[in-house]
Amino acid sequence: FFEDNGVKLKVEDHGRVFPKTDKSRTIIQALENKIQELGASILTNTEVVSVKKVDEQFQVKSSDQTFTSDKLIVTTGGKSYPSTGSTGFGHDIARHFKLHVTDLEAAENPLLTDFPHKALQGISLDDVTLSYAKHKITHDLLFTHFGLSGPAALRLSSFVKGGEIAHLDFLPNQSLENLKTYFEENREKSVKNTLKALVPERVAEFLAEDKADSKVKQLHPKDLENIISQLKDMEIPITGKMSLAKSFVTKGGVDLKEINPKTLESKKIPHLHFAGEVLDINAHTGGFNITSALCTGWVAGIQSPWD
User: What is the DSSP letter of 38?
Assistant: First the structure.
C-alpha cells in the first residue's frame, strides 16, 4: 500500500519496516493524500465530546456540531502519548455502550531499573537476550540514565510491572563451556583485553571491576566463574516502567470477547465497530501496530457501503 502510494520503505532487522526518510510525517502524508484522493473529509480542531445512539442512529457531538450516521467506527487509538489525541476517549465510548474494557497499562516502553547503570549509560548492544520468566527477547538493548531501552527492553515491558528480576545474556550464541574454553585459551592476556573481544570496552571494564589489568590465569577460579556467569546471566532488578503516557503502545482496550472478529462489530450494539489500538490488541514497534490498525480498519470499513 505505502509503496504503491509513493513511500519508499526499508526493512531492518527482525522484520521491522520503516520509511526511508525515517520520518513519521512521510507515512502521515501518504495517508492524508489517499484520504483526499478518495474524497473523504477530515475535520481538524473538532473534538468529539459525546457519542450516543438515538433511534438506530449514532449521534456524534462536538462542541458546536452534531453528526449522525447509521454506522460508527471508533478508531481513536489507545491512551499512549495523549498529546497526539490518544486520550482514551474511545474506551469511554465503549463503556458508555456497556462494553467491557480490559485494564490499560503501558507496553513497548523503557524499563526503570535498580542497577549501577551509570557506568554503562549510553552503551548500545546488538542482539543480546533479555529475559524474565518464560519470556526471552533477543534484540538490541540500550543502557540509559534511568534503566534500559531499545527493542529488547521495550518488548519485555509487556510482561513486567516492576519488582521482577530480568536476566541479561550478553552472548546468547555462546555457551558457558565455550566461554570457559575461550578464557583458558587466553589465560596469558589481561582480563580486560580478553573481555573486549567479546563485549564493548566499557562493558568489559564494568565486568572486570578491579581485576581489569590482571591476567586471566591470575584470577581466582571463583572470580573467573563470576565473570563468565555475568556474561551469560546478569541479574537486573526492574523497579518499574515509564508511564502509560510515555509508552509507545497501550496494552489493553475493548475486550475482544465483545467484538465479532469477522466484522469487528460490537456483539451488543449493531453497526458499532472498533478498530486499531482502541481494541485489546498490541504489537511490537517497527510497523507491526500500524499494520494491525490498517488491517482492522479495512475489515471494519468494508462491512457496508457508505452514503
Answer: H
